[in-house]
Design a protein that fits this description.
Elements (H helix, E strand, L loop, with lengths): L2 E8 L2 E7 L4 H6 L6 H8 L5 H16 L6 E3 L5 E3 L5 E7 L2 E7 L3 E7 L3 H4 L1 H4 L2 H8 L4 H19 L6 H4 E3 L11 E7 L7 E8 L3 E8 L4
Helix pairs in contact: 2-3
């Protein structure tokens, strides 16, 4: 099975990365006979061929992490385990699917390295964040990470009407492109609770992977 990596980047969070090279029929055949219903559930209502492959790969990756209960999707497209035995998050980028399982609400995001987030910085970053970005080494990579970070936080929030530039703020940190797990923080100004989040990122050859967890009250 083409699981690229199964690991625990931070205590209590397990991540599986799937390098997606198979077509739908090949992915479907990888499900054990007794778990084919999970494949059928994953494909229900999904018409686009690429999206169907991503759904199957994500479901297989969750099986690798021990999640055999049905997965349901909220009206906002957020995946949840039907029996609420754990929290999950799913992300995909071209050629890759990532899933995370945690005992706490979690957001995961994978983003391919690109200059597009840097070009669009004014649309999703505050002025303070853009100032930080301009002072960072490797601005294009740092912008990709900031976009990934805000996507991960957004997944934990599960709220509507979130303006990334106004409602989600990343605290300044030292960006280093590394495969090691690095930590930074963010805060939201959308719900009125000013919830704080701790984020972790790792840099891979093709993409950056970011995790978001709500910061526990000390």
């Amino acid at each position: 099975m083409p699981i690229s990596n199964v690991y625990e980047p931070v205590p209590g969070v397990r991540v599986a990365l799937w390098h997606l090279v198979e077509d739908e029929s090949a992915l479907y055949a990888l499900f054990p006979a007794g778990a084919r219903r999970l494949a059928d559930e994953a494909l229900a209502g999904v018409a686009h061929a690429t999206r169907r492959c991503e759904r199957l790969a994500a479901r297989l990756a969750l099986l690798q992490l021990g999640v055999s209960a049905p997965v349901v999707y909220t009206s906002q497209g957020k995946p949840e385990i039907f029996d609420e035995s754990a929290h999950i998050s799913i992300s995909h980028t071209r050629g890759w699917v990532a899933v995370a399982v945690s005992s706490r609400p979690i957001g995961i995001d994978v983003e391919r390295w690109s200059a597009r987030p840097l070009r669009a910085a004014a649309r999703f970053l505050s002025e303070r964040e853009r100032d930080w970005l301009s002072a960072s080494d490797g601005a294009a990579d740092a912008a990709t990470l900031l976009w990934s970070a805000k996507e991960a936080v957004y997944k934990v929030l599960g709220a509507e009407g979130v303006d990334f530039s106004q409602h989600l703020r990343v605290m300044p940190f030292e960006y280093v492109r590394t495969t090691d797990v690095r930590r930074f923080e963010a805060e939201e100004y959308c719900t009125g609770q000013n919830r704080r989040f701790v984020l972790f990122y790792s840099c891979f050859c093709d993409f950056v992977l970011t995790l978001a967890l709500e910061r526990e009250v000390e």
